[in-house]
Every structure is written in C-alpha cells, then in structure tokens.
Amino acid sequence: MNEDRSSTHLPSIREFKFLLIALRPHQWTKNLVVLAALIFAQKLFHWPSVIGAIWAFLIFCVVSGAVYLLNDLIDLKKDRLHPVKRSRPIASGELSKQFSIFVGLILVFTGFFTAISLDIKFGITVIVYFFVMAAYCLVLKNIVIVDVLVVAMGFVLRAVAGAFAINVAVSNWLLVCTLLLALFLALSKRRHELTLLLDEAAEHRSILGEYSSYLLDQMIAVVSASTLVTYGLYASAPETVAKFGTDGLIWTLPFVLYGILRYLYLVHRKEKGGSPTLVLLNDKPILVTVTLWAATVITVIYHGNI
C-alpha cells in the first residue's frame, strides 16, 4: 500500500487517472434517472428540454463525483480492511487525501453554481441532494433501515431535479416508482455485502450487523412486489391512458417483471448485486431488458410522433 502523498507535490498524470477512477464514472449511469421526466412528460423531441436534461445529467455527475470522494475520505480506514474497497484510489494511497479534498470542493461549488444558473428550483434540489448524501456518508448510513431509505431518496431527488430542469410538473407516480425500485436495489446491495463479508460484515460496515439475510429477504420481497404492483397501477391508470392517448404502456410490465426476477436470480444464485450499475452494464439479459423496456415505452408514449 502506498503512503499518502505530500500536500506539496504537483498532481501527476497518474494521479489524475486515479482521480477519474475515484469519481466512479461507471456509477454515473444512476444519474440517467434525471431523464425520466423528459421521457414521460413527452418532451423527448423538444430540443430546449433535451438540452436542459443533458445539463442536469452532467451536473449530477459532477456533484455525485464529489460525494464519492467524500465517502472514500470518511471510510478510508475501513476501506483499507475491505477485500474489494481497499483497492480504491484513496484507500490504496494512489490518490492523496489533500488532492481529493481540493478537487471535491471544486466539483461541489462548480456543480452548485451551474445548477442554480440553470434553474433555481433545480439548483436547490441539487444542493439538497448533496447535503443529504453527505449526511448519509457521515451519520445516516449507520442507522438501520434509514440507510437504505436515504440511498433511495437520492434517486427520488434526481427524478425531481430532472423535472425541475425542464420545467414540468413532478409526477407522484414517477416519485413512488423511483423510490420503490431504488429501495429494491439498495436492499439487494446490502444482502450482497452481508453474503460477501459473512462474519466480518459488521467490521467493514457497522450497519450490516443490524441486518440478517432473512430480514433482508423479507424486505426485498415486500419492496419488489410493491414495485411491480405500483408500476402496473400506473401503466393502467385512467389518467395515464388519458395523458398518452393509449393503454399500451401496460405491455411494458413484462420487462419490469423479468428485470426484477433476473436481478433476484443474480443476487441469490450468482452472488452479484453489490453494484447495480455494474450488473446493468455487464449482465446481457438485464441490459437487453432495459433497452427493450425503454424502446417500448418511447414507442407507446410517442406513437403519434415517431
């Protein structure tokens, strides 16, 4: 393990490489949630809204990158004992703490300023997102059940921000579906961590001592069923049919059902689920399912414009 570098050295190309790794670009796919409002508000072919949504996505990538740096700085000692996380740039010593703090501050203030410039409500939502995630890193991740709820709220705030960025109303259906799906993924991740670390789980992440595989399985069962029922109700609701002029959205339900069942299969039988984004990017059936779901949704919603 490399020792932390001196605060007086100039960052090298190698350190910038490890900085990019620490910002976790593969996790930025989570920020695609801000595009949900663009699609479901039927603004996908409205150029100003598309530009606003792209800016929203980029801003969340900047701010979430700062959150990852903050999290790694806070968890430095624990990460060095973790079988996987010890290879992270800050934990391994490849990226200095001083440089990480400096870059983190630049990212935060740049993200805040740009977000407020885009739209005041969007900017406030971004700021709230950052401080909620900071509170999670510092305290809330150590409170049972609250920890996974806060992670899920991070996705909800992204969805809300996406609506504010293009100046459309925030759909209650969108918020509830986002919350439940994100909670499903967060609980599945906890179960994967518990299975991976076994008896040493609480030493690496203290909150895991409050959970058991059985408890998490019960929670996952409740949330996954709720997700399917809620999405089904949304897809077939009279106001949904009236808004889109078709009841065809219900045909996207099989993709959601398969995606959830496939994810449960990966968690229970393949011991995956530690990183939902990596599952999305690396598991071909999941990737194909999400692609087909998105294509079907767009076709149904924009059937008169395509």
Mean model confidence by pLDDT: 89
How would you characterize the largest beta sheet? Answer: none
Runs in which pLDDT lies below 50 for 5 or more consecutive residues are 1-8
How many β-strand runs?
0
* Cα separation of the termini: 55 Å
Helix content range: over 70%
Content-based structural category: mainly alpha
Q: What is the 3D form? A: globular
Oligomer: single chain
How many helices? Answer: 15
Order of secondary-structure elements: HHHHHHHHHHHHHHH
Beta-strand percentage range: under 5%
- Determine Rg (CA atoms, Å): 20 Å
Please explain how this structure is put together.
With 306 residues, the protein is mostly helical. It is built from 15 helices and no strands. The chain has helices at residues 13-22, 36-40, 47-74, 76-79, 89-92, 97-118, 120-138, 146-165, 172-197, 201-204, 213-236, 238-244, 253-269, 276-282, 284-301. The longest helix has 28 residues, at 47-74. The radius of gyration is 20 Å and the shape is globular.
Walk me through the topology:
Elements: H1 13-22, H2 36-40, H3 47-74, H4 76-79, H5 89-92, H6 97-118, H7 120-138, H8 146-165, H9 172-197, H10 201-204, H11 213-236, H12 238-244, H13 253-269, H14 276-282, H15 284-301
Helix pairs in contact: 3-6, 3-7, 3-8, 6-7, 7-8, 8-9, 9-11, 11-13, 13-15, 14-15
